[in-house]
Amino acid sequence: MFETTVLVNEDALLEIKNYLVAPRNKWFCILLVLGGILIVFGSAVAIAELDFGYDGYFVIFFVVLFIVGLLLAITMLINYFRQGNVVVKTIVKRFQESGHSEMKMVASFTDDKINVQNLTSGANGEVDYAVVYRFSETKNFFTLFTKAGQSIMVNKTSLIEAGEDNKFLQFAKGKLRCFR
Predict the structure, then answer these.
(1) Do 95 and 103 form a contact (C-beta atoms < 8 A)?
(2) What CA–CA distance (Å, rounded) separates 41 from 70?
(3) Residue that is last in its domain, among 97, 117, 148
(4) CB atoms within 10 A of CB 102
(5) Which residues contact 177 (CB under 8 A, 6 or more apart)?
(6) Which domain holds residue 169?
């Protein structure tokens, strides 16, 4: 139904790097929410106490709580976005170790599966739509992510040039669970 060829190189990976780190990391979400709660609670109580003229250790405690929550949230966000760069560098290093600076991939979408062919290494694989749990869209790519941490990049530019980008999105929405 749809077939696209994509050149996976460092530039392409940098474009999707914020999506390469799975957001389902439970601890990341828990700590970010905890940091947000500490920020809101600490600042609200500290402001309320200062407005009523209270001073002393109680206000200092909530100001410290606010600062700790803010630092926790900032640290988690920095770490999350830093992980994307680490993943890109790791993939590029694997390319270089195999003697290549990029990989040419072909993804063919049929009614029941996705056929992925690595033209650089000669490897072939099939991916069932049921294992795709996440879908992202950037300026030049649609990217499908599997539960096992693999990704399938689709050249959005070639679909737009062929006038099939909206058809592909409708097809993906019908096949992928992440849209349901």
Answers:
(1) yes
(2) 11
(3) 97
(4) 15
(5) 129, 130, 132, 133
(6) 2-11+102-179
- Residue the block writes with tokens 């999506």: 19
Give dist(CA 2, CA 142) in Å, integer: 13
pLDDT given for residue 117 in this prediction: 92
Spatial neighbors of 90 by CB under 8 A, at least 6 apart, are none
User: Is 52 in the same domain as 68?
Assistant: yes
Q: How confident is the model at residue 126 (pLDDT cuts 50, 70, 90)?
A: very high
pLDDT in tens, 74-114: 787 787 777 778 888 888 888 888 888 888 999 999 988 99
Q: What residue type is assigned to position 136 of the chain?
A: S
DSSP strand pairing (141-146 vs 132-137): antiparallel
| Angle of helix 57-97 versus helix 10-20 axis, rounded to 10 | 140
**3-state class of 140 per DSSP?**
coil
Q: Give the whole-number percent of the chain exceeding pLDDT 90.
A: 8
3-state helix, strand, coil in the chain (%, to 5): 55, 25, 20
Q: Cα separation of 151 and 163, whole Å? A: 24
Closest alpha carbon to 13 in 79, 82, 85, 83: 85
CA distance 175 to 168: 10
